[in-house]
Design a protein that fits this description.
By secondary structure, the chain is α/β, with parallel strands linked by helices. It has helices at about 5-15, 25-40, 45-60, 80-95, 120-135, 150-165, 175-190, 205-220, 235-245, 265-275, 295-300, 310-320, 320-330, 340-350, 355-360, 375-385, 390, 400-410, 415-435, 440-445, 475-480, 485-504, and strands at about 65-70, 75, 110-115, 140-145, 165-170, 195-200, 225-230, 250-255, 280, 290. The protein is about 55% helix and about 10% strand. The longest helix has 24 residues, at about 415-435. The radius of gyration is 26 Å and the shape is globular. It binds guanosine-5'-triphosphate and magnesium ion.
Length: about 500
């Protein structure tokens, strides 16, 4: 998603490579690329214009310090290109935020009314939000308030059954406001802690639709009224949001189908045009494809810097914390075997389609297109044909062992050799990373990445610097995550060494 815009920013920063200062000419040239990509992504023209104007003003106006100290006193160089990226990132965050994705509670109930045009994904979102709330331990009631489209009720019942959430529906001839009110009373009576009203869609914004929504809202007073919009509608999604916002009080927008749209301009413009923030993103048809919207995360993804916090959150969900910490420690000492690799691979697979996981990693986001899930299955089969000793210390795999393994999994001996070679390199790299401390130890260690390492904006423009894997990456200030103690200790050690060196 938003690949178009990412490419625009990448072209822009490429242009600024090697320039010694930002001036009227080179910033205009760089911004031309950004402008084109924003318009191509279907971002509203006015929003685009004011965004570019702000970036230009700040880019030119702010004195660029070419050498700055980070919080730990380390000196860092900032290029004009990096300064440009930083300004862009901050302005993107301002454009889309601030957002609070916690769902409000009223009279003890997390109540949500979903509204939106036909086919935008309301019913799917209802199920996705139910799953989201399930994870918070809520007891949820789904309400089928679409009595117009045949099979609408059935659709929600099927979804509800698949996630083990009861669905309330009306009887023949009962109108949506009455159905919702009855459901509300049932939720109170039966001790539910969350209720989700899935309303009917219309082809276009019309008075009947608005009147019905107003009537439902008056009857059940939902704590959260969320508008569902379809990213494929591009700029129209923003216009629709604007039209709804005029008629009903919206607390947030959910933008769906971002997986199917490389443009996704609506994500950037909704807040600026309507004043209503996006709260969630839908990125797939299945019920697990819902993301809390974090402007910082999206901004750094757009700028090609990955989305560390989101990644870590996903990681936390699939990982046993204590075990992960131990694993991370071992891995960073270079003391890990193919068994560990297998385990890590499976964990990452649990986080979602590999392509997507990769695209959110800093530094290697660009490799996402080359990820091949089939390759993983191959590796898995090879590892499974090895003995315990071979997995722990692949170095012992000689020609005859390789032959046996190859036979066991139906691969060529050269495949086995290749795997062992690559694994050896990887182990070496991990060991080297571990010595420096940083992100990777954070990923495992209770999911607390070493975010504080770099001050705002010290990231390389293209995001392809391998040091991105080591620490920092996002705007440190924006994430407010504490570093884990180990990374802090490491950092202090580095600082001491640096000071010592300086004194000499
Ligand atoms: N790719 C993708 N498809 C989605 C997403 N969300 C919903 N869909 C699909 O969009 C179609 C419509 O989804 P629904 O949830 O039925 O939409 P709705 O707004 O409830 O539709 P009506 O009730 O008819 O107004 C379905 O085929 C969904 O699978 C998403 O995030 N990504
Ligand atoms: Mg529906």
């Amino acid at each position: 998603m938003l690949e178009t815009v990412t490419q625009g920013f990448k072209n822009a920063t490429d242009r600024l490579k090697g320039v010694r200062e930002l001036n009227e000419d080179n910033i205009d040239e760089a911004l031309r690329d950004v402008r084109m990509s924003l318009l191509e992504a279907d971002v509203d023209l006015k929003v685009t214009r004011s965004f570019l104007a702000r970036v230009k003003e700040r880019g030119l106006g702010e004195k660029v310090k070419t050498r700055v100290k980070d919080r730990s006193g380390r000196k860092l160089k900032v290029t004009p290109g990096q300064h440009f990226v930083r300004v862009c990132e901050e302005e993107l965050v301002d454009l889309m935020g601030p957002v609070d994705t916690t769902l409000a509670v009223r009279s003890g109930l997390t109540s949500i009314m979903l509204a939106g045009l036909q086919g935008v994904g309301k019913t799917t979102v209802a199920a996705k939000l139910a799953v989201h709330l399930q994870k918070q331990g809520k007891k949820i009631l789904l309400v089928a308030a679409d009595v117009y489209r045949p099979a609408a009720v059935e659709q929600l019942m099927t979804l509800g059954a698949s996630i083990d959430v009861p669905v309330h529906h009306g009887s023949e001839g009962e109108r949506p406001p009455a159905i919702c009110r009855a459901a509300y009373e049932r939720a109170k009576r039966e001790g539910f802690s969350a209720i989700l009203y899935d309303t009917a869609g219309r082809l276009a914004v019309d008075d009947d639709l608005m009147a019905e929504l107003q009537e439902i809202a008056a009857g059940v007073e939902p704590a959260n009224t969320l508008l569902v919009c379809d990213a494929l509608m591009g700029r129209d999604a923003v216009n629709v949001a604007d039209a709804f916002a005029e008629k009903i009080d919206l607390d947030g927008v959910i933008l769906t189908k971002l997986d199917g749209d490389a443009r996704g301009g609506a994500a950037l413009a909704v807040k600026a045009v309507t004043g209503v923030p996006i709260k969630f993103l839908g990125t797939g048809e299945t019920v697990d494809r819902l993301e809390e919207f974090r402007p910082e995360g999206l901004a750094s993804r757009i700028l090609g810097m990955g989305d560390i916090v989101g990644l870590v959150k996903d990681f936390e969900e699939v990982v046993d914390e204590k075990e992960a910490e131990e694993d991370a420690e071992r891995i960073l000492k270079g003391a890990f075997g193919l068994d560990d690799l297998l385990k890590q691979m499976r964990m990452i697979q649990k986080m979602g389609p590999l392509k997507e996981v990769f695209s959110r990693m800093p530094g290697i986001g660009g490799l996402a297109d080359q990820v091949d899930e089939g390759e993983l299955a191959k590796i898995e089969s090879m590892i499974q044909s090895m003995t315990k000793a071979e997995r722990t210390e692949p170095k012992i795999i000689d020609q005859s062992r390789a032959q046996r393994i190859a036979q066991g999994c139906g691969r060529k001996v050269s495949d086995i050799d290749g795997l062992v070679d690559r694994f050896g390199q990887m182990r070496q790299m991990m060991g080297a990373l571990g010595k420096q401390g940083g992100l990777l130890s954070g990923l495992g260690g209770g999911g607390m990445p070493a975010m504080g390492g770099m001050p705002g904006g010290m990231m390389p423009p293209g995001g392809m610097d391998p040091s991105m894997l080591l620490g920092g990456g996002g705007r440190a200030g924006a994430t407010k995550k504490r570093q884990n103690p180990k990374a802090r200790k490491n950092k202090r050690k580095q600082q001491r060494a640096a000071r010592k060196k300086k004194r000499k």
